[in-house]
Amino acid sequence: MHPVLFRLGSFEIRFYGLMYVIAIAVGAVLFWREVQRKKLGLTNDEVISYVFWVVVCGILGARLYFVLFMWNQFYAENPNEIFAVWRGGLAIHGGIIGGVAASYLYSRVKKINFLEITDAAVTMLALGQVFGRAGNFMNGDAYGVPTKLPWGMVFPEGSAAGDEFPGVPLHPVMLYELALNLISFFVLWRQRKRFHKSGYIIGLYLLNYGVIRMFASFFRADDLWLGKLRAPHVMSALFIAGAAAFVLKFRLWEGGKNQAT
User: Fold this and answer.
1) pTM here?
2) Concatenated DSSP letters of 144-181
3) Domain total of the chain
4) What is d(CA 34, CA 11) in angstroms, rounded to the nearest whole number?
5) In a domain, 256, yes or no
6) Structure confidence at residue 94 (pLDDT)
């Protein structure tokens, strides 16, 4: 594991950034195909515009969320670091909130169904998170607590994990989440063509990821905290409760139109 793919003089390409680029590119192509299948009526330019704004607002939301939770510990005395995203500090729950907000505003501007466009997009988000966790692994961040289990991994000096726990085997929690997100992607990919009403896929994604992150956070060493509670546990619980209530209230798996092709 090494954060830099290759370096040429002062120019370098890092695995983490490369994984973001691949995730956006693959997600955009699959989203475009889903838009065509669902006949949402978006042009190619509108698809590109939607992806752009969702990505931008997702990154802004992820950064704002992280900065707010770390304000007293760091950013209050280091405000010049707020925009230094390249140093790390993006929180996925904030990214999801920012992306959903962008999707809602875009649907209002373009006068398209918000639930239909988010249903088309969140499956690709689950896949994007797989690439993201691969980047975390190569970067040595989003790391786990020490473990004596045989699959514990020692991260190299210079990585966040290696610097905090030098020479100590850690839970490779980013790989746990990578595998679970991949399973979530395949579940969503299969479900998207079955009988359901609009909103079912976004509800299922939020439920899936809430459970995934709730589990993974038990092994994370670098989680944000809300008092004595892990912030991801609080947000994941809200995701699970909100998604379950939404799906159950509207019985989104019943009726609707068969979306299979």
Assistant:
1) 0.92
2) B-B--STT-BPPPBTBHHHHHSTT--B--HHHHHHHHH
3) 1
4) 37
5) no
6) 96
